[in-house]
Amino acid sequence: MLVLRLARRELRGGVRGLTIVLLCLALGVAAIAAVGTLRAATDRALAADGRRILGGDVEIDTGTQPAPDTLRAWLDARGARLSAIVQMRSMLIAASGQRQLVELKAVDPAWPLVGEAQVQPPQALASALGEREGNYGLLAERVVLDRLGVHSGDIVRLGDARFEVRGELVVEPDRVAAPLILGPRVVITTAALPSTGLIVPGSMVRYALRAALPQPAGGARVIAALREAFPDTGWRIRDPHDAAPGVTRFIDQTSLFMTLVGLTSLLVGGIGVANGTRAWLDARAQTIATLRCLGASTRLIFALCMVQVMALSVCGVLIGLVVGTLLPVALDGWLRTVLPVPPVLGVYPLPLALAACFGLLTALVFSLAPLGRAARIPGAALFRDAVVPVRARLPRGVLVAIAGLAACLIGLTVVSANDRMFALWFCAGAVATLVLFRLGGWFVMVAARAGHRLGMPAGRLGLANLHRPGSATPMMLVSLGLGLSTLAAVALIEGNVRREILEQMPANAPSFFFVDIQDPQLARFESLVRAQPGVQDWHEVPSLRARIVAVNGVPADRVQATPGTRWALRGDRGLTYAATPPPGTHIVAGSWWPADYAGPPLVSFDANLAHGWGVGLGDTIRVNVLGRDIDLRIASLRDIAWQSLSLNFAMIASPGLLAHAPHTHIATVRVAEAQQGGLLRRVTDTLPNVTGIRVEDVLVAVAALLDQAAAALTATGSVTLLAGVLVLVGAVAAGQRTRIREAVILKTLGATRRQIRAAWLVEFGALGLAAGLIAALVGTLASFGVVRYIMHTDWVFLPGTLAVVLAASLAMMLGFGYAGTAAALRAKAAPMLRNE
Amino acid sequence: MPSAAGPVNILRGIDLEIGAGEVVGIVGPSGSGKTSLLMVLAGLESASSGSVWLDGREVTALNEDALARLRRTTVGIVFQAFHLIPPMTALENVAVPLELAGVADAMERAREALGAVGLGHRLTHLPGQLSGGEQQRVALARAFAPRPRLLLADEPTGNLDQATGDAEMELLFRLRAETGTTLVLVTHDEHLAARCGRRVHLADGRVTHVEHSIVEVA
Lengths: 836, 218
Fold this sequence. Notes:
The complex is a heterodimer. Chain A is of the alpha+beta class. Chain A is built from 25 helices and 22 strands. Chain B has one domain: Rossmann fold, CATH 3.40.50. Chain B has a six-stranded mixed sheet. In chain B, strands 2-3 form a two-stranded antiparallel sheet.
């Protein structure tokens, strides 16, 4: 074929001009392929280990109540092997008085049904947990042993009971590595649980029954039958496909964010593609004009150039795919420490195909316009001095093709995302950002044109470079700007979250939460707190655990709730009661009940959840408290400031019925730093079943988690910036010849090096300033959208963060300008001035 | 001149003195060192030995920036390839050396200079929008605008057709006569060289002979 033959001949001449196209695509595709591969590898790990992570073929989470015997009998009848576990938080206290908040898991002898627990020193689980010389055994994670300074054989206390530490729990098969926010794991046997006195009505405890079926494949059928046999129980029944829903959600969200950031870098790469293609075609203008003179049609020229650009694009995409596949392998060691499950690395065709599609579509969308224009270069160009670029109009067919391919790109982005609405918003945002930068570029050019009339002589050349016909201003602006916008948005979102959680802590935030205080213990607790020096403030409320059964008669699992409020329909919720509104209550609808109200139960509900569930005043929420269903009618809606860390409950019921149900109390205490240890010791020594959670410890854990998330996002965002830098380097390099020429002419006319340098610093400084300002604006808008509408928290303006973005932008641009200028100033004048 | 194969002596033992207001033509075959001589005179290339004195100052002793400052006020250069700055309008191109020299009414003087070369109506055009002759006239205006004491012209008609070239040279000689500037003109156009009061013939980097015109053409 003629086109291919010509293309091969031309490509022989080298592809230097198109290298930037290749690099830009490789970078973007590598980012997307790496994220996709990692995601697939994690999914496969979760799927492969689903049974182990779930701890069986079916798990029935029966909430705060143990599984009834009827359920056991039903499962027994189907030949299932059963294991019951109980989980709660508690304080583990060493003989030294050191204490540690732990996630306690009580297991029966059948545990674990799947996989194997590993204990150090090696021993049988039954003997490790069993009773010996009056004490049951206890296994704990390394971190617990280290923090308490205890070893095998030491005696520790949990609630009222003494346990002997029998070793370290090295591998807990049914646990997904999760960040340690509320405490590391301790395992005991369920037989020892009663002696601890930790389980009282109203305790924050969770029971689950796992079943290993004779035919694991029939799990779905058994679950369907189970739901039918035990309707309306509110149990959460899960199979291995859904072994770690929290983790899956986390991975879904993280991979979505990272994919979108990857797409942003591909977008920047696309600008590099457009720019590289244009520069390459400019250099080829003479060849093209010659071919036209020799009788080549526009169609042939178009095909000829396109074949060459696409050949390089395909190479770029392939390099990207290889890098994207290898990158997770290279990072394997580190990934194992940060991911909830060790990823099963390998070649995953689907994410790779997706990344390749993204790359090729981007290459097409961004190269078609310059290709279409180049094809229109007339043969006559050979005979004319084509200094002023010809603004050839694009053929209609090319315009339609660009629009169609861009639509495909957006479609693919949306369809391949798990949160399509968010992806759609992202696409809209990306398009708006491109338009914004284009407008910004136009504005800079207009301002430069206006400004250079009054400017200093040094500044004039710099400003003239900004607004000259065919100037690279808009392109340089957007290529640096997109990366900066991404980083600005990430920094602002992170800053907002951090401020929300850590810095925005109200001055009166409590130092401790004490949970599971039993009714008869309340007076004792109160006297302890009052006697403790340094206590500044304390509050106590009754606490019940309630499961949402139905909302207005619709079962909880069928309620149409917004994604942001669905969580509240799952699992147990805290419920309290009060005769009068607690201090700081902000009622937005309805009214509080009279203090002596004794009618049917009413509830004051969280306005945000009410909105998300589509309920309002007068509607009914059916909750299950200690196995009993209670209908609560919504009497008022409250705005809740969760971040105040005071005792907030989504549901506050009227007293009466609930006051007579067995329940515990939760207290918050604000105490001087120096007295915190003393208070915790006194309370948990006197009331062994009470658990004290130090707010600061939780915040430190949250901050560490936040650091990790921010680091991951910043790293991905940096890829975008890197892509931008690549494009920028290309642009500066492309303009270098002109720059050297101008430096020489200026020197000839009497310009000192200082004056020339100043001129270019004006040019790059103006670009850096504009890019930084627009990036700050885009970052602000994007972070506002995410913080306000996805995270549903208050957004604040963070001028410090934006100042850093602006400074970085200026510094980078000036750096480029300086590097380019230094090279241009070194150039010798004479060779350039001699007659060519 | 330094080269990959060691230094190459392009100019050898040139001993030339040019008086103020003189019009000197440098002629010779290609590669004889004409342009190199001009470059050395302008301080754009340095001589490996010997010295160049301009207006009482030793050019060869100045550093790059001092040379630039000297050129600003004292030396105007006209090139064969015009060497205008593409993103700047005609007016701005002419104003550049004046602005670099810190002349207060640079724009006003640039406008006058363009008026003097007959381009008063092309002030806002970019070089790319001007014809070759017009570009050379902008370059002439730029060279004359700072009222230099020395004007160096390197094959100024080389890129122009005969008729345009003749017209531009009329203009060059008229402006020179009006300003009294010293002119050093590199050319191999015999006709053009004949208009110079003194013609220095170069061959192989040496002055072979010098001719004096009987009539100095104004």
